[in-house]
Specification:
Elements lengths: L10 H14 L3 E2 L5 E2 L1 H7 L3 H11 L2 E6 L1 H12 L2 H6 L2 E6 L11 H12 L5 E5 L5 H11 L8 E4 L6 H4 L5 E4 L10 H15 L7 E4 L5 H10 L5 E4 L8 H8 L7 E4 L7 H10 L1 H15 L5 E4 L4 E6 L5 E7 L13
Parallel strand pairs: 3-4, 4-5, 5-6, 6-7, 7-8, 8-9, 9-10, 10-11
Antiparallel strand pairs: 1-2, 11-12, 12-13
Length: 339
């Protein structure tokens, strides 16, 4: 039987081919609702050399997503593959249940903690569990002394802020509001925000902080006090409770803020600006950009929504003299529905 053409290629050529396949392989939705990159799996099945070369791409990003039993099955599969465990660089835990009365199996938090301890090459962790069961995971993780010193990017769900202490080298921190919005009362939302900021104070290497919830003046004020030296900030919730005009002077208190990301202009300043956006979106974006960049003299740019970035042009005294627009996709910390 004639050898496969791939058998005749040397290691370097095969590695370049694998790079190309990985770079061009898109996430697709499976019939069961999961996201998969089938092209990678098909390509890796050709022979052992390709399987070995493709392992870092196949298991670079792994997600444990779903209800309790689904999570346990996925954890069992991951545990059984030491080679896969060593390749995981991004690990996403996204658990949910139809109602709060369904408690997690006792073994789930423990096995998840043990698995996290094995992820020696992990650099990005997304950790979202139902907030009314988060204390169970916290207790088990504390017992297991989970420590992930190599993690630089961390995304946490509501009341999952305990994960911050597990990642002492975290540089990028985001609160994930995907499951949060509209599901909890204002008191719970305020408690969640307070706990998040208090925990973030311990992230000594933090560079970027981002929240996906509605922002009040008091919340932004607390962020400036607890994290005064961050260079990048994302306030991308769908509304500012007091309007962006009132929040802007507070944002100006940051000592070294260079990059700011906001929601799209329709979310920033109440009914008046909403009407203006409907008439002329670009005018509204320019209004917001000029206001923020003029008040915050350390800023180099501000994103308005996910597709418009305004770069500041300043004179020697840091006074804003012009705004240069770039229309491109913002590189988000985490995206859905991809794993």
């Amino acid at each position: 039987m004639a050898p496969s053409p791939f058998e005749l290629l040397n290691h370097d050529v095969l590695a370049h081919i694998c790079d190309f396949v990985a770079a061009t392989s898109e996430w697709i939705s499976t019939p069961k609702g999961y996201m998969s990159r089938n092209a990678l799996w098909v390509f890796s099945a050709r022979n052992k050399r390709l399987r070995d070369l493709m392992l870092p791409y196949l298991f670079h990003t792994v997600a444990v997503r779903g209800e309790w039993e689904t999570a346990l099955k996925l954890i069992t599969k991951i545990e059984g593959s030491p080679a896969a465990v060593s390749c995981i660089r991004t690990f996403k835990v996204d658990l949910y249940v139809p109602n709060r009365g369904i408690k997690p199996p006792k073994e789930l938090p423990l096995r998840l903690a043990r698995l996290l301890c094995r992820l020696g090459n992990l650099i990005k962790l997304v950790f979202v569990v139902p907030q009314f069961h988060s204390d169970v995971f916290f207790e088990e993780f504390e017992k297991a002394r989970v420590l992930l010193p190599q993690v630089e990017t961390l995304v946490v769900g509501p009341f999952c802020e305990f994960a911050i202490a597990m990642c002492p080298s975290v540089k990028i921190l985001q609160s994930n509001g995907w499951q949060w919005r509209g599901e909890h009362d204002d008191v719970s939302a305020q408690e969640h925000a307070h706990r998040l900021i208090k925990a973030a104070k311990g992230a000594l290497e933090l560079v970027h902080f981002e929240v996906d919830e509605a922002c009040s003046i008091s919340f932004v004020q607390t962020v400036t006090e607890v994290l005064p030296n961050i260079s990048s900030l994302g306030l991308v919730g769908r509304r500012f409770e007091n309007g962006i005009a009132k929040v802007t002077p507070i944002i100006a208190h940051f000592k070294a803020l260079h990059h700011l990301a906001l929601a799209d202009a329709s979310s920033l300043d109440g009914t008046q600006l909403m009407e203006q956006v409907q008439q002329e979106r670009r005018e509204a974006e320019l209004k917001v950009a000029k206001m923020v960049l003029s008040a915050c003299t350390t800023l180099k740019n501000v994103w308005i929504g996910d597709n418009a970035r305004a770069d500041a042009v300043r004179d020697e005294s840091k006074r804003l003299v012009d705004v240069v627009w770039h229309y491109e996709q913002r590189d988000k910390v985490v995206s859905y529905p991809q794993p």
